[in-house]
Amino acid sequence: MPVEHVQTKREIEALLRAAGVRPRKRFGQHFLIDGNLMRRLVKTARLDPAGLVLEVGPGTGGLTDLLVGRTHHVIAVEIDKALHELLSERFAGDDRLTLLLGDVLESKHAIRSDVRSVIDAFDPGAGGCVKLVANLPYQIATPLIMNLLVDHPNVRRMCFTVQAEVGERLVAQPNCKAYGPLSVIAQTMCRVETVTRIGPQSFWPRPAVDSVMMRVDVAESPFIDQEELQRFSTFVRGVFDHRRKVFRSAVGYVVDDDARERVCGQFDATRRPESFCPKEWTEIFGVVQHAD
Hints:
It contains twelve helices and eleven strands. It has 292 residues and is α/β, with parallel strands linked by helices.
């Protein structure tokens, strides 16, 4: 089988010149120009014909080319107006793709409403599901991943490239700077894999740091419903807002005195929030819930 063509750096530059635009730093635009990595990203996602794919930051459509036709539908969200127009022309009349203009995030804690509606209304049927497949802009990666995990149970897999710092947060272990709410939520709910590390030469313009390709598969979690998971996320984030304080002090900002005394009676309250592993966080939350 011949190797499928993907956009090269020269082709991306030509598309941008024709559109009269240049890569914009404020949008975190670093185009993936390594065709082998693009193919590997799609292969890692294991797309299915009954599925829905969310692509954020499609740029000039290099990855979009590989997604469309491999799954039931692709919804691509592009914040750059000029690139959105370029994509609209390239994919005109293709009903397998929905292109949306604007930021995928409505706020730090919510995905925009039209994207939410499509994801939540998707009927998986025939074993399909919603997957995120993207070369993610650094600025929106952490809140996007967190919101998809906590608020959208239809999303079952995420495969993406992103600056290494975000990947490190996903797999971070307790007692390190990278460990935080994203680490706890992702490791509680998912199987997280660093597929490969990627040097700056695989992007144009070159970023100043390395990137990683990640695969995040949502697995069984200790939570029986979405509301409980949302409460857990709010609790963890609230305590980590005071990560430099000892646990007794930090947890006091998010629960009442009775719940604090109950949980501090069962766990070492002199430890700092970043010292508790994900399993301990679920146990702590269980005590807090019981106290309520």
